[in-house]
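EI: anyone free to look at a 120-residue chain?
SC: sure, send it
EI:
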Amino acid sequence: MAGEDGHSGGCVMPLRPAVLGLNVDPETRCAHYHSPRDVVAIRMKCCNVWYACRDCHDALAGHVAQQWPRAERDVTAILCGVCGAQTSIRSYLKSADACLFCDAPFNPGCREHHHLYFEM
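SC: here you go
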């Protein structure tokens, strides 16, 4: 049953942000990372722009990337390319390599690159 605003009252996902990168597909895979599990994009600290990966940022942004500091772990900066859900850095780092909303598997190898994005 629709409410006064015309919506059914279910969960409303925010509009999916544009994700920049090289050869980015609809689920945020790019020229650098394109396995079935490479479906995580990040809002970069330095420019507040969503990128498929740091290599894409470095190729396109024209400035040096910055890490998210520990004090900003509650900032929403992670995007699931499968369902479009956005989550905090803290939630992403605690996740078991899967989206907390749709359970899409994330690449466990991304852990090797956390130091490029987040102050560890």
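EI: DSSP finds three helices and four strands in the chain.
SC: 👍
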